[in-house]
Amino acid sequence: MNPIGRANELAELATAWDRVVAGAPELAVVWGRRRVGKTYLLTHFAQNKRSVYFTATRQDTDDRQLRRFAEALREQLGDEVADLAPPTFPTWEAALRFVAGIARAEPLLVVLDEAPRLSGGHADFADTVSAVWENHIRNQRLMLVLSGSAVAVMEQMLGPQGGLHRRAGVERRMDPFPLTDARAFLPDLPPADFIQAYAACGGYPLHLRRWSAQRSTDENLDDLAFTPGGLLLRDAPDILSEDLDWRGGYERVLTAMAGGARRRSKIAGRAQQRIDYTLDRLRRAGYVRTVRALGTGGSPDPFYEIADDYLAYWFAVLRDDADLIDGGQGPAVRQRTSGRWQTHLARVFEAAARDHAQRLVAAGTLPSDTVIGRWWKDETVEIDVLGLTGDRPVLVGECRWQAKPLTQRDLGDLRRRAAHLASPGSAGLTFAFWSRGGVDETLTNHPEIRSFTPADIVSTG
């Protein structure tokens, strides 16, 4: 079975393997957070190939890692290396030169998973790989894949000062699935229920596979989030631990953001620390995104928000009460955090609406040069979805995670907010509403109004 939604990654790796079979060595780097499916993808890719798959372990010595790698060679390649592979290797350079040697006659795939854990010795592992690739790899039929969950470390290896800079023929970052791609994991779940599942699980394959379509949202959350040892309760610290040292105050910053602090000054105030370095590190590692008001006339100060929906859920809903949940009080915690859960849901729904608006542009429903974003001015007015063609607004939208249909009052409020924008162009202005309950009959006859539901948002058609 092919990994869901990873066709581009598989195709890129397969093309590189074809080059190896033809006699050209290939270095590939695949990285991304824990749980995004790197191991699943690479083990699937390695099937039916002459291959060695090795996973480095945390806090192990070079000697131990090298001994384990030699054991993996003997176990996975069997008789062909039984008399060639030593009990261990003195260095990683020697180990890599050995696999290059046995790749001369027949194609060989070597996957070194969690490669940043091999940097614990005196030499940087990326520099070692680079030196071997430069000096000892010529026409061997070798494909070496380095994989890792420490996103910041992997990108440093590939960056201008890193040992792998411009060395790899394949550089592929794997991120959690966006909502529409994640739909393939739970295709039979009603659209509104799926959005709730995604808001809790994010785009992580393991989380989505554990969500049961036969159970209600509350039942799934009880099992996965509000039970001691539940997957959603325990996974966030493991994901973050690959990248972040908690002594750097990252947890405080992310907690402040999950609690609603979006401006730099408010985040710093709630975290009670200086945040310039911390925020920049979180942004570069992909945990935080910077959002600016689209177009002109809005606030010049950016917003900052957690870029990962599952991590945002964990920080907003679970983190502060994890000890109570572990103590068996999950049902009570779920009730007392219901307001935070609904706030988080609304944010996920709003982001999904903006993604849907971008698909409307791609489909030709809106002018092809329309850009989609959001707009706000100080603390006075905020527009959830804004579409601009040039400097002129063509779409102004509101998102509401509510089952009750929207009314004329909501349209009036949206018109008042739109009055803060530049005048629309000759094509006029479309008002759009994204809501679970749609709009009532008083709005259905307005030609300038579009209404969308969760079914529209999750549709991939």
Automatic annotation (TrEMBL):
Signal peptide: none
A family per Pfam: ATPase_2
Top-rank taxon, per record: Bacteria
Residue ranges of every copy of the DUF234 domain listed in the record: 314-403
InterPro entries membership: ATPase_dom (IPR011579), DUF234 (IPR004256), P-loop_NTPase (IPR027417)
Boundaries of every ATPase domain copy: 6-208
Name of the protein in its database record: AAA family ATPase
